[in-house]
Amino acid sequence: MDAPTPPSPGLPDPVLPGTHREHVWAALMRARACAYPLPPHGHHPNFTRARQAGRQLLAHPQVSGLHTLIVGPDRVLAPLRKLALEAGVTLYVPHQKKPAQRGQVWYWRLSDPAGARLSAMPKVGEPVLYVPGKSGLEDAQAAVLGSVAVGRDGARLGKGFGWGARGLGLGLPELTLAHPLMLSSMLPCAADSHVALIGTPDGVLEASTL
């Protein structure tokens, strides 16, 4: 039997996505850079200054003129949802407790700033069923997803499960928010999806290869 081929010298060992997620979650905890839910493990981290990151993203020239966004239900995106609704932007937020057939997703269509909070969505939101190729989100112009780690080239690593785990695949620009500790020049592992813009507390990064 032939001996196994040794790894090429100078190349780092491959990193599993789960390993990198754990690394980022631990780094945020050590730096006390995230808020509830704690610990951040298993979540898209609700990092400190997420509101500033959301404000930066919404003010970017590629986003500021949009009137309808899909936005994830994560707590880290709640400030962005509120800012967008206050600015008159219509949002679609996934209604994760309402079952749908495979490939279909229920969303809340929101225009009231009170709808930024998940608990208020049933009171002020309109349920909309997205059916691939048929109906639901025709007026959406971009989507904002939560992340665990992001490369400056636009490679995104999510929490590994749930809505938008592998991106949405709707042919829309996908965007995200990130704390500096969540950023790297390139992910050391396979990406879940790719984003065009990364909102940070200090500005917006345009993905370098997209």
From TrEMBL:
Gene3D superfamilies assigned: NagB/RpiA/CoA transferase-like (3.40.50.10420)
Protein origin, superkingdom: Bacteria
Species: Deinococcus marmoris
CC terms in the record's Gene Ontology section: cytoplasm
Protein name: 5-FCL-like protein
Pfam family of the protein (one): 5-FTHF_cyc-lig
